[in-house]
Write a structure and sequence with these properties.
It is built from 21 helices and two strands. It is an all-alpha fold. It has a domain of 217 residues.
Length: 490
């Protein structure tokens, strides 16, 4: 390793070292002072965010081409690190309230973020797999962090078993890709294909297996089965982090791999576009339809997350059209950012209403739709924020969700996939039913909801609501930033 290699991954290196130090400090000095542990974790994430921003505008290939430092990585690292900071803010009071405050939570969170960052840097399939495991293993533990609660342990077990199974698909996909091209480097794979030296059938099989493995991580249909149970059983702050960070990391790998390594496959194998079209459409339709019948807010948001994965997958379908290729990737990045801001706001409200006591079914109180009845009368500001988030998820103006869907639908239309855009619009209309149903309960039903007015929860909800609306004004500059960050991929 030379100095330029270290500089290219300096943010990850600093974060991993910080997480290891945090573990040791917590064990020997701060076991009884979780506030300091949480503050140190936030400080490490903030420092790493600053280092990541210093890499803006720089392009560097490191470790023999296995790592790529570029604008794409910087954009996604901002999302990952900001997600980690917000998760720390949401977690401290929540963990105290639920009686599960333990210092290793924050170290595990930092390790997961470092895996997500490595995913954004990955320019080799081996690094993609290493990053996938680095981000997944801490999440398996975090999902079961509320032990000895059975629902949390069940969540962790399901996530671990299905995650390990999906990782096997990724490994087999990498093996087939190597067998077809003799390389695992993304750029090298493209060169071999262009030279006509690859085995198309084997390469297509490798692409399909990798799509299956990463499809699990982003909860795309038919690899979504784990999502509702894991989201419901995991601690809510962990669920919020998974819904944003893990999904963004999965799409980081999908975008990097399919935009770079398998870009030629769109031309060589027409079936790849068809498969992506079917997966995107099925994910949008199934996610929205199944969300309608959910009364538990966490399960509803789980199916909602599946549906949003379908919207982002729309960006992969028209990629074969070179005229809109860059815009499709930029639209996916913009939607990921919009989803992250809105999603954290929603989970802040959910966490504010969640109780530590259990109901008859053994689940925490405050997680059913009926628990939101009368929220607007007793806590109008919180109900107003939740309304903004529901409108954004639906895709109504003036919210970031509207701008995100507008960019995605535009690229689908420009790419010639009118049918897929129509499915996206129709499923957005379906989603309005279950999103606005929450608003109806808050404003039109009577109830006596009790909210935990914790400072960081209120701050997160308020900042997310303001950002969801105010940043709509700057949608075009943010989209331009995303577009510039992906230019180096082509």
């Amino acid at each position: 390793m030379i100095l330029s290699d270290l500089l290219s991954i300096l943010p990850i290196f600093v974060l991993v070292v910080w997480a290891c130090a945090l573990l040791l400090v917590d064990v020997f000095a701060l076991r009884e002072r979780p506030a300091i542990t949480a503050s140190l974790a936030a400080l490490g994430l903030a420092l790493t965010l600053g280092l990541a921003l210093t890499q803006s505008g720089q392009t560097r290939s490191a470790f023999g081409g296995m790592v790529s430092q570029d604008g794409f990585a910087v954009f996604l690292n901002v999302v990952f690190l900001a997600s980690g900071l917000i998760s720390v803010a949401l977690s401290y009071d929540y963990l105290n309230r639920m009686g599960i405050q333990r210092g290793e939570f924050y170290a595990l969170l930092l390790f997961a973020v470092s895996g997500m960052m490595l995913m954004a840097y990955a320019a080799d399939l081996i690094v993609v797999f290493l990053a996938l495991e680095l981000l997944s293993i801490p999440l398996y533990v975090l999902a079961g962090f509320a032990r000895p609660r059975l629902d949390s342990e069940e969540s962790a077990m399901k996530y671990f078993l299905l995650g390990a199974f999906a990782a096997g698909f990724v490994v087999y996909g990498i093996a087939f890709t190597y067998g077809a091209t003799g390389s695992t480097g993304l750029v090298d794979i493209v060169e071999v294909v262009r030279a006509g030296q690859a085995n198309p059938a084997m390469l297509s099989l490798g692409a399909g297996l990798i799509l299956v493995g990463l499809g699990f991580k982003v909860a795309a249909v038919p690899f979504h089965m784990w999502t509702p149970d894991v989201y419901q059983g995991a601690p809510s702050t962990v669920t919020a982090f998974m819904a944003v960070g893990a999904k963004a990391a999965g799409f980081a790998a999908l975008l990097r791999v399919f935009v770079v390594a398998f870009s030629e496959q769109y031309q060589v194998v027409d079936g790849l576009t068809t498969v992506l079209w079917i997966v995107a459409a099925a994910t949008m339709v199934l996610g929205n339809l199944l969300a309608i019948s959910q009364r538990n807010i966490k399960r509803m948001l789980a199916y909602s997350s599946i549906a949003h994965a379908g919207f982002i997958l729309m960006a992969f379908v028209p990629y074969a059209n070179e005229e809109v290729a860059a815009d499709t990737v930029a639209a996916a990045l913009f939607y990921l950012l919009a989803f992250a801001i809105t999603s954290f706001g929603v989970w802040a409200v959910v966490i504010a209403l969640e109780k530590s006591e259990d109901d008859e079914s053994g689940l925490h109180k405050g997680l059913n739709l009926e628990d939101y009845a009368g929220l607007a009368r007793r806590y109008p500001a919180l109900a107003g924020a939740m309304t903004v988030f529901m409108l954004s998820f639906t895709g109504l103006p003036p919210t970031l969700g509207f701008a995100g869907k507008l960019f995605l639908f535009r690229t689908a239309l420009e790419g010639g996939f009118v049918g897929l855009a129509v499915i996206g619009v129709l499923t957005s209309l379906i989603s309005a039913y279950y999103y606005l149903r929450v608003v109806v309960y808050m404003f039109m039903h009577d109830g006596q909801p009790k909210v935990h007015g914790e400072r960081w929860l209120n701050l997160t909800a308020a900042a997310s609501a303001v950002g969801t609306v105010a940043l709509t004004i700057y949608a075009a500059p943010i989209f331009d930033w995303a577009a510039r960050s992906v230019l180096q991929l082509f």
